[in-house]
Amino acid sequence: MRTSAGSSCSDLNVQLFGESRLSDMARHWRFAIVGVGVVGEWHVRVLSRMENATLAAVCDVNPAQPAKAFEKNKITGVPVYTDIHEMLRKEQIDVVTVATPSGDHFTPATVAMEAGKHTFTEVPAATTVEGCHRLVGTSERTGRHCVIMENCCYFRNAMMVLNMVRHGLFGEMLHGEAGYQHYRIAQNVFDDHGNLLWCGEEEARRNGNLYPTHAVGPVGQWLNINRGDRFDYLVSVSGKSRGLNLYAAEHFGPDHPLTRREYALGDINTTLIKTVNGCTITLYHDTQAPRPYDLIYRAQGTKGLYMGTLDKIFIQGRSKGDTWETLEGYSEFEHPLWKALATRAEGTGHGGADFIMLQRLIRCFQTGTYPDMDVYDAADWSVIAPLSEQSVAQRGRSVD
Ligand SMILES: NC(=O)c1ccc[n+]([C@@H]2O[C@H](COP(=O)([O-])OP(=O)(O)OC[C@H]3O[C@@H](n4cnc5c(N)ncnc54)[C@H](O)[C@@H]3O)[C@@H](O)[C@H]2O)c1
Q1: What pLDDT score does 352 carry?
Q2: Ligand 1 atom 21: the closest Cα is on which residue?
Q3: 217 — pLDDT class (breaks 50, 70, 90)
Q4: What residue owns the CA closest to ligand 1's atom 6?
Q5: Separation of CA 60 and ligand 1 centre (Å)
Q6: What's the CA-to-centroid distance between 48 and ligand 1, angstroms?
Q7: Among 132, 150, 168, which residue terminates a domain?
Q8: Cβ of 329: how many Cβ atoms within 10 Å?
């Protein structure tokens, strides 16, 4: 899973931020959004609350989509394009956010970098091994950032655990566990008229962990992936596929083509990653069997562990005996970003994480700080999907 073409983070940092930092502090960053559907509308909303950032233009192949987002957020006067090349030629843009369907991030992200713009891409950044390599190559060659917008890394508990890890509370890190466990057929797979949406098309033909970044993003940061450790290999196994056929039978009838169709994606996929420094990460992809939402988020080291599902923590020498505690007793580890921004983040998406993520990324650009999630993270977190497909197809054989 080595996706870097050779440059280190610090090489790219110097290349990108070697000049004019003072002027960057005062700079107003001009954003464009490509793809203004459900998630692109979140980008519209959160950008409209940012200081030092302006939504300068948007691009969507279906202009009715941005029109809806603008109406909802009472925004006027932002130019709408259907062609990214035309938008980048005509408008003055610094950063392009990409929120097109998952398989379509690669092209707008590379077009933007080639045009000299930084890119913030939705998750996953690319859906093929080659696409992940090419994102890294393009970012290194153009000297533009390709940041993955993994908002789960900015969840309050995820950042608190990161702070605890950095303070050595868990000792030496051993293991992480997380899952994209979200029953989302009704919203993402079928429309009401019995058609497959783009997510459903993916689930019909691919079998593996198709959506790994919400799970692996925070865990990767806790385990210092790409900052001292890196993924070595994975094994992945999927069970049987039932949920999509059952849903289609119930909603569209037993003889509907979507009921009789064969879907590739197993209802539960389990992927196990080994890192070069000897840590393990278990990831689940579980979106087709009815269940409440749960990302798990377990962080375990030589001195204790955090269990996100239970929101419980145990630290040897601090917790009594072998009993769990809640995070409340650990408030001194609240992450500084949450201490500073919690009030302003209130009411924004994902419990405020979307606001905190964008504030932080813009602040990084202003101060010349290297972003928390770079193109190497984008590639390594995203490539788990196609590599897990390879492993599933080979009866769970290990894939590097
Ligand atoms: N970060 C998160 O929490 C989160 C949550 C859900 C989805 N996502 C990701 O966000 C992305 C978008 O998902 P969505 O649910 O908003 O999809 P969507 O289908 O609602 O929106 C996609 C939009 O992109 C437009 N589009 C398609 N191809 C285009 C192109 N080539 N150029 C310009 N516009 C194009 C479509 O017209 C549509 O308006 C996906 O990759 C998804 O995985 C992220």
Answers
A1: 95
A2: 37
A3: very high
A4: 39
A5: 10
A6: 19
A7: 150
A8: 12
Is the confidence at residue 17, as pLDDT, over 60? no
Supply the pLDDT for residue 27: 78
Sign of CA dihedral 81, 149, 119, 19: positive
Same domain, 92 and 180: no
Domain identity same for 90 and 162: no
Mean pLDDT within 81-86: 98
CA atoms within 13 A on the CB side of 111: 19
Identify which of 44, 139, 41, 29 has the alpha carbon closest to the alpha carbon of residue 93.
29
Lowest average pLDDT, out of 14-18, 308-312, 358-362, goes to 14-18
Report the separation in Å between the CA atom of 82 and the middle of ligand 1, taken as the mean of its atom positions.
15
Closest residue to atom 28 of ligand 1, CA basis: 100
Say which amino acid occupies 366.
Q
**How far does the centroid of ligand 1 lie from the alpha carbon of residue 275, in Å?**
31
Pocket lined around ligand 1, Cβ cut-off 6 Å: 34-40, 59-62, 65, 99-102, 104, 122-123, 149, 151
Q: What pLDDT, on a 0 to 100 scale, did the predictor assign at position 348? A: 87
Asked if residues 387 and 5 have their Cβ atoms less than 8 Å apart, the reply is no
Contact status, residue 168 vs residue 198, Cβ threshold 8 Å? no
Q: Which atom of ligand 1 is nearest to the CA of 38?
A: 16
Which residue's entry shows tokens 């057929």?
A: 185
Q: Cβ(214)–Cβ(295) under 8 Å?
A: yes
Q: Which atom of ligand 1 is nearest to the CA of 152?
A: 3
Q: How many residues does the structure list for the chain?
A: 400
Confidence of residue 23 (pLDDT cuts 50, 70, 90): low
What's the gap between Cα 34 and its chain centre? 17
Same domain? For 62 and 95 the reply is yes
**Is pLDDT of 55 > 90?**
yes
Compute the distance from residue 109 Cα to the ligand 1 centre, in Å.
13
User: Domain span at residue 236?
Assistant: 153-338+375-393
- The pLDDT of residue 14 is above 50: no
Q: Look at the block and give the residue holding tokens 């959004």.
A: 33
Question: Do both 168 and 43 map to the same domain?
Answer: no
- Concatenated DSSP letters for 51-85? TTEEEEEEE-SSTHHHHHHHHHTT-----EES-HH
